[in-house]
């Protein structure tokens, strides 16, 4: 995921997507430890923003973590199929 996002970042003003981490950790420390221990190059929604987290996580439950959901600019879910989302992000980062 990090390499896909790096390719997207290289597009500068022509970036095609934005990845955002929506943490599932039940506490602030767990969420912060995950972010610090990963190679993430994207923003994370803070655990304190509970309403945003609940809204986003309700959009595309896939039964596993990490859960990938592709949304359009209106916030509507386009896909919650992990392979489909990764394929689409890879395509977008190459264009």
Number of beta strands = 4
**Beta-strand share of residues:** 5-15%
Biggest beta sheet attributes = 2 strands, parallel
Question: Mean pLDDT, nearest integer?
Answer: 78
- The third-level CATH topology is Glutaredoxin
User: H/E order of the elements?
Assistant: HEHEHEEH
If you compute it from the alpha carbons, what radius of gyration comes out, rounded to the nearest whole angstrom?
13 Å
Shape, per Cα inertia axes: globular
Helical content band: 40-55%
Supply the CATH class. Alpha Beta
Low-confidence stretches: none
Question: Strand order within the widest sheet?
Answer: 1-2
Secondary structural class: mainly alpha
Structural summary, described in words:
With 95 residues, this protein is mainly α. The chain has one domain (2-94): Glutaredoxin. The chain is built from 4 helices and 4 strands; from the N terminus they run H-E-H-E-H-E-E-H. It has helices at 2-10, 28-37, 50-57, 82-94; strands at 21-22, 44-45, 70-71, 77-79. A two-stranded parallel ribbon has the order 1-2. The chain has a two-stranded antiparallel ribbon with strand order 3-4. It starts with a helix and ends with a helix.
């Amino acid at each position: 995921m990090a390499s896909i996002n790096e390719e997207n970042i290289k597009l500068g003003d022509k970036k095609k997507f934005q990845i955002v981490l929506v943490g599932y950790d039940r506490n602030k420390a767990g969420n912060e430890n995950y972010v610090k221990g990963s190679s993430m190059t994207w923003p994370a929604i803070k655990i304190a923003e509970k309403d945003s987290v609940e809204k986003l996580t309700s959009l595309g439950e896939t039964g596993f973590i990490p859960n990938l959901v592709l949304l359009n600019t209106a916030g509507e879910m386009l896909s919650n199929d992990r392979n489909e989302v990764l394929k689409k992000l890879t395509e977008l980062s190459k264009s």
